[in-house]
Amino acid sequence: MIWCSGWELASAVSNAGGLGLIGSGSMTPDILREHIQKCKKATDKPFGVNVPILFSFSEEFLKIIIEEKVKIVFTSAGNPAKYTTFLKAAGLTVVHVVANVKFAKKSEESGVDAVVAEGFEAGGHNGKEETTTMVLIPLVRESVSIPLIAAGGIGTGRGMLAAFALGAEGVQIGTRFVASLESSAHPDFKKKILETKDGDTHLTLKRIVPVRLIKNKFYEEVEKLELTGAPLDALSALLGRGRAKKGMFDGDLDDGELEIGQISGLINEIKPAADIVKKIINEFTQARNDLAKYDLA
């Protein structure tokens, strides 16, 4: 959710009954502090911050989170043991994002309070294993005893119910909220999401950091290099710096990275975050009631 989830979206989701998360991966320390302070003014409900551990500012970010008395942090993209003890000692609830069973177990061993298991349907950076959410959630559920949050390909109430049936206690939803009024994504990127159908996204750049992208000119250039066996430095040079900002925040639909999940094929309107939360909960309730008609005894 880099470039997409700032204080406006996080506070709107929290006010609607979810747990809003500020995506810090696109921020500097000063900007993160500003977003946290604005979020605290905009909601009196709990919210959290996602911090990619491998990010250069991660340690400074965590200190700011503690100073600003944020109570929940989601860590990702790195070893969960690196900061968990430090964060737990400061009284924070710590959740780590994983894409396989190995790191789910490592997360539990490190002392995190919960894990997010993210299937490869998810947008943005992803697991090399390409394990689908429907397979990953049961695998992780059998491997850890701490609470499990499902992610990847979930953007409806029916998807939420399915995740619960697979063994999750909660869901993390990103893509659906990119196409919300409060998302900080560029309006042109939001409109592009509405046009995206099944098959229009693809997991690529697997030799560097796997990322799911909408197919555009930049994607085609990446695929051409990968298919011809180009060296890693050629791929890195093409990626360069600021590609994600160019696509998702600046709205360059040709030369920018357009990170989004497969669930984008089901999104057909840009709505306020509160309406999205309400619709998901209503769909979940209806789907659960619909299942009651099946007599499986």
Mean pLDDT over the residues: 94
Largest sheet: 7 strands, parallel
Helix content: 40-55%
> How much of the sequence is in beta strands?
5-15%
Uncertain parts = none
Helix/strand order, N-terminal first = HEHEHEHEHEEHEHEHHEEHHHH
- Total count of helical runs of at least 4 residues: 13
Q: In order across it, which strands form the biggest sheet? A: 1-2-3-4-5-7-8
Describe this structure in words.
This protein has 13 helices and ten strands. The model has no long low-confidence stretch (mean pLDDT 94). Strand 3 (72-76), helix 4 (84-89) and strand 4 (93-98) form a beta-alpha-beta unit. Helix 1 (7-15) runs parallel beside helix 2 (29-42), helix 7 crosses helix 13 and helix 10 (217-227) runs antiparallel to helix 11. The protein starts with 6 loop residues before the first helix and ends in a 6-residue tail after the last helix. The chain is of the alpha/beta class.
Structural topology:
Blueprint: H1 7-15, E1 20-23, H2 29-42, E2 47-52, H3 58-67, E3 72-76, H4 84-89, E4 93-98, H5 101-110, E5 114-118, E6 124-125, H6 133-141, E7 148-151, H7 157-166, E8 170-172, H8 175-178, H9 187-195, E9 201-204, E10 211-214, H10 217-227, H11 232-239, H12 243-249, H13 273-291
Parallel strand pairs: 1-2, 2-3, 3-4, 4-5, 5-7, 7-8
Antiparallel strand pairs: 6-10, 9-10
Name the features.
alpha/beta; 297 residues; 13 helices; globular; 14% strand
How do you describe this structure in short?
This protein has 297 residues and is an alpha/beta fold. The protein is 42% helix and 14% strand. Strand 9 (201-204) and strand 10 form a beta hairpin.
